[in-house]
Amino acid sequence: MTTRVEDEHATSMRDRGQRPTHDDRQPRPNPLREGLRLERMAEPCTMVICGATGDLTERKLAPALYNCLLGGFLPPEFTVVGFARRDLDDQAFRDHLLQGINKFSRNRPAKPAIWESFARGIEYHRGDFDDPVAYVELERRLDRIDRDRGTAGNRLFYLAVPPALYPEIVNQLDRAGLAAPGDRRRSGSKRGWTRVIVEKPFGSDLESARTLNRELAEVFDEQQVYRIDHYLGKETVQNLAVFRFGNGLFEPIWNRRYIDSVQITVAETVGVEGRGEFYDATGALRDIVQGHALQLMAMFAMDPPVEFHADDLRDEKLKVLRGVKPMSPADVATNTVRGQYVSGWVEGDKVASYRDAPEITPDSQTETFVALKLGIDSWRWAGVPFYLRSGKALPSRVTEISVRFKQAPLALFARAGVPQIEPNVLAIRVQPDEGILLRFGAKVPGQGLQIRNVNMDFRYGSSFAVDSPDAYETLLLDAMVGDASLFTRDDEVERAWEILDPILDAWQAGQGGPLHFYGAGTWGPPAADELLERDGRAWRRP
Amino acid sequence: MRFGEAESLATPMWEERGTSVRAIAGHLASLWDVPAELDDGGDPLVTEKGLPHARASVLNLIVTVVDEAAADRVVHTLVGLGVRHPSRAIVLVPQQGAGTAPMDARISTHCNEVSGGGDRVCYEEVVLTVRGEAAEHLSGIVAPLLIHDLPTHIWWPGDPPWGDPVFDQLVEMGDRVIVDSADFSDLLSGLRRTSNLRRRSGVGDLSWERLAWWQELTAQFFDAPRFRRYLPNLSRLAIRYAVPPRASRRHDEEEEVAPGVPAPMAQALLYAGWIATRLGWRRHRTLEPLADGGFRLRLEGRHEMIDLLIEPTTTDEVRPGELLSVRLRSLGETGAAEFIVDRDRDDAVVATNADGMTALLRLLSMASPREPELLSSQLTMDVADPVYEDALRAAAILLASSREAAA
Q: Which residue on chain A is closest to B84 by alpha carbon?
């Protein structure tokens, strides 16, 4: 006679979790994972960092991997292969990563014994990116790792190199049979997945973005490509989604009937700070609006996805971007303002003019500030202006979305000598202090009727004092799990360029209005204020 | 630590002996008022930022302790907790027998700066000493002091007085009850009674929370599909847990230095119960009792018979009751495999020896979580945890089996 240690309830739960499958190739889910805090675990894999001796690996990737290790997020089999030209051996490469951890990790310095244990799974592969032999040897190495460490044929390639090198690397990966997922590999492990992470910028205009996407698509399926933009940290994106779709209060009023206008501000206090050459060829529109600001707008404005899954989410964001109609040259002159900062004071420090910064051409026409008025032609948003602005050397570092609601329909208190009350404002602050502010009118206590606006201010930092993981930690784990929600899809990238290309062209052709100058430490040129004043509105001072 | 000595205080401590619930509620309502400022004309100045600190509340926490010393310990834990869970915490110190006054109260607000950004997380702490007949009606005293519409968690440090009407009333008013099964003076009875508690948001157990990292490491062995196939064929599970050396066990009464752990086997049993219920094992028979309360049981798995070994090991390097090692052995198609987590103070060696391949060996950090961290994790949960409930029932069955054998 035996007694069950489990009971009926447990049995039924287990059976639900382990539904018999006729497909033996699909392993049953791990029954021990049920109910654990970590519902998704990165799969055993090898991460190959192309350009492994560069700055990104030291500053971001090594600290992110170490923090993931400490958090218990990396599978035991996890292996890193650094691939670069520099003549290093395994130990020297491990030291390079360790140096990055000890300098930049929030959990520094690394604990020696734990690091030693982790470092056993780190190898260095020396080779030139244009040398086919290097890739053949890389394939052999990965096969050997699969056998020795049980990485199951799963490979994550991180292209930590300038975009100009992408075509060479992906083609070489393809030729060596390294780009295909396991079931399409010619040799080596016939199992497992292959994914590739590419860094922004995703092109510098529509043409270059299409070329880049095409080059990637010739080798990889779109499902294999993860375009990383660390600006889209998971917390922000998920917070915005939870705020909108997790609360019954806001979604019903999230449309043209109740919302008057929307402002999106991405303000930086810094100047070009050692990125002069890159920035002078790029400008604010390409650097911030193309990725970050338009993505925030899409997240803000999208319809609820059917499920919170990568492609559902990206389909909805794409619909928003498709609703933004590209501008004619005349529209560009009316609805855009570009500016460049001249000397001034930011946060108590004197800042030199942009044109006097290192690596900047003396007559540079590059915009360090941009303000745009966009519209979304959709049932939900027709007629609601979206004002976007982004700039460098502005008075404070802030990213926020502010929603101005329509005025109350009747000036009910006008007879009591109270003028029309200001419209309500809902501000969603993304950084630095994530939070939500609602501004509404309230009666000043006392005799008589006096109405003042008050702010109801909620800060995430005051409610949840938990360290948010670094964006790279989240994104690396997502790529290992295969969740592409926070990565940008090719069609989103291209649509963003379709919106911005006419603006860049008009500016280039001198048809888009002049380049305005603004003092560092101000909120951009007066023309940006006039852009809103024409509509009877004003920028919110964040 | 005395009350009110948190890192920073937003308001001075308010203390009143022989007070009333109404007076306490009145003081709580005015806690965050700032003195009215007047403009030049002498009229009240209306400012948009009326509060000195943003205040956000996420829950009510009621803690009942046996005496002032225990209250001190709880307050110490709460200071660390307030950072993550802005709340109103009500610490109850019931005292039997009539006193000079039925109720004394101390109220303080604690604010901690977080992330260096000037944000402050604040919480309110109310310590009530209740005497005489009033001590038998704690729920009636607490109810008016709760913040409306927020979940109420009951944390009962120490051995819960099962069946006591005061305990039952308080449990009844909470959405979630948190205990620590290592504190149960009668472990078997405690496990059974805990599994019979039914609250809307479930029951939490700090001993279960202590197992989180062990569970994670164990589950990781079998995330890889090629190792998962060893799971149905497990043939041995050996768990070692820490018991203090006899000399130090005599000093259990020195709670402030080394809090006593009446039931050190709780974690090991919950761990075994967890594995057994996840894998559908059945009890078969008890092989033998071991020294110091350890035992060997024979269980019936899907394909194999399993030896379950739960064994105490004397050490003072970790807190009594914490796990020291877990070893799982399995027979697969390609031979035997072993999955091992061995703890050595603050580190753990995690090893997989299977498939005839090079042993996968890792060293990972395994520091004991502190009580505020355990409580904090438990407070973030607001639904029942069926995996815990299954493990709890199984733990009781395993323990009962070992007792039968011993008898």
A: A465
> Which of B117, B283, B362 is closest, CB to CB, to A2?
B283
Which of A34, A41, A111 has the CB atom closest to B223's CB atom? Answer: A41
Look at residue B51 in the predicted model and tell me its pLDDT: 46
β-pairing, B119-131 vs B152-155, is unpaired
Most A-contacting residue of B49, B110, B216, B376 (CB-CB within 10 A), to test interface: B216
Q: How many CA atoms lie within 13 A of A145 on its CB side?
A: 26
Asked if the Cβ–Cβ distance from B54 to A30 is below 8 Å, we say no
pLDDT range class, residue A25, cuts 50, 70, 90: very low
Neighbours of B250 (CB within 10 A): 10
Q: What is the pLDDT at residue A416?
A: 66
- Quick check: B197 contacting A, CB < 8 Å? no
Interface predicted TM-score (ipTM): 0.83
State the average pLDDT for chain A. 87
Got the DSSP string for A487-522? SB-HHHHHHHHHHHHHHHHHHHTT-S-PEEEEETTS
Q: Say how many CA atoms lie within 13 Å of A236 toward its Cβ.
A: 26
pTM for the complete prediction? 0.79
Nearest CA of chain B to the CA of A180: how many Å?
Answer: 21
Q: Residue B118: its pLDDT value, please?
A: 55
Taking the Cβ of residue B173 and every Cβ of chain A, the question of whether any pair is shorter than 8 Å is answered with: no
The SS3 of residue A287 is helix
The alpha carbon of residue A344 is apart from the nearest alpha carbon of chain B, in Å, by 26
CB spacing of B363 vs A4 below 8 angstroms: no
Domain-wise residue ranges, chain A? 39-199, 234-468+487-533
CB A391 within 8 A of CB A403: no
Query: Which residues lie across from B89 on neighbouring strands?
Result: B61, B125
CATH number of A39-199: 3.40.50.720
Residue A292 annotated as catalytic: yes
Which of A2, A75, A454 is nearest residue B48 as measured by Cβ atoms?
A454
Catalytic pick from A230, A292, A309, A516?
Answer: A292
pLDDT band at A406 (very low <50, low <70, confident <90, very high): very high
Of A7, A37, A459, the CB nearest to B119: A459
Of all residues in chain A, what percent carry a pLDDT higher than 90? 59
pLDDT at A196: 96
CB–CB contact B86 A72 (8 Å): no
Token output for A125: 């592969």
What's the average model confidence in pLDDT over B302-325?
91
pLDDT at B48 over 50: no
Over the stretch B336-386, which tens digit does the pLDDT of each residue have? 899 999 998 888 989 888 866 656 778 888 888 888 888 888 888 878 889
Please name each of the domains of chain B with its CATH number: 9-174 (no CATH), 210-406 (3.30.360)
How far A189 CA sits from the closest chain B CA (Å)?
14
Query: Which CATH code of 3.40.50.720, 3.30.360.10, 3.40.50.1820, 3.40.50.1010 fits the domain covering A234-468+487-533?
Result: 3.30.360.10
